[in-house]
Input
Amino acid sequence: MAAKSRKLRWHLAVWLLATAAALAGTAVWAYTPALPAEMLISRYSNTASRFIEIDGAHAHVRDQGNPRGIPVVLLHGANGSLHVWEGWARALGDKARLISVDLPGHGLTGAWPRHEYTVEAYTDFVDDLVGALHLDRFVLVGHSLGGGVAWNFAATHPDRVSQLILIDSAGYPPAGSAFRWPTRFARLPLVGDIGIYFKPELWVRRTLLQQYADPSMVTTQRVKRTAELQRFPGNQEATLERARTQSLLDPSLLKRLNVRTLILWGRKDRWVPVADAIRFKSDIKGSRLKIFDCLGHDPMEEDPRASAAVVSDFLQPIAEHAGQP
Output
């Protein structure tokens, strides 16, 4: 009996050691700390990139296209970057002055000393950004989270936005829950604090496969860029802070809007249902809606030519409709 008991204890010890080793190996494989800022700036900035101090943030901005064209400010979504607008920069560059920015906690902008990553804080950031660029009136475009920032800015600064374009925008609470599961996970004590550092490229790939209707969009290059930019110093902590402090938006503000508005949506969006596009169309007086049947959450990336063509037809010189809806 004693020999049998020792054998059982030995097998248990071996199993525990093997399990611990497997867990440690998995942790080492999945652990993704911040990468050097200099390396990422060299890799993901270009000749159009500028870095501007905006309310303490070292903001990565690209000012491209026709400098005499219609000024268009472009806001990306959560965990995105200004790279999502590259197709539009090529398609609309002759007509418009395209100003894209990495919001604080994203891309090459990184952490914000203000340590606030709510829609309201981003609205303040946009106000400071356009002030620094000396823009009195401009077209404001927002995708996903950036859409929520865009319409909130338009509702609170009605004299500044000449035209508003919303793309698969945040705005209405998701059905069945106050927040989606990644946000609920991030809000768990300790689990969320550790979890932000465990996001391997495999997880990013899975997220992007949900983001696009066309799986061929999920290239090795796009996965690498997305994963590495999320590891720019301060971005992981900002993602956690944003998840823990964001609140549901107040869609009643939409009915106050008196600005010429275009709504673009991918019918195959798995994250924000096309039903929300219909609600935006109903709530924003006089708005136009274009649904792309074969596209997902990022129509400006999946089909930049088709989506930019709709935008080009919609844009009007600011002087032609100043003060008009």
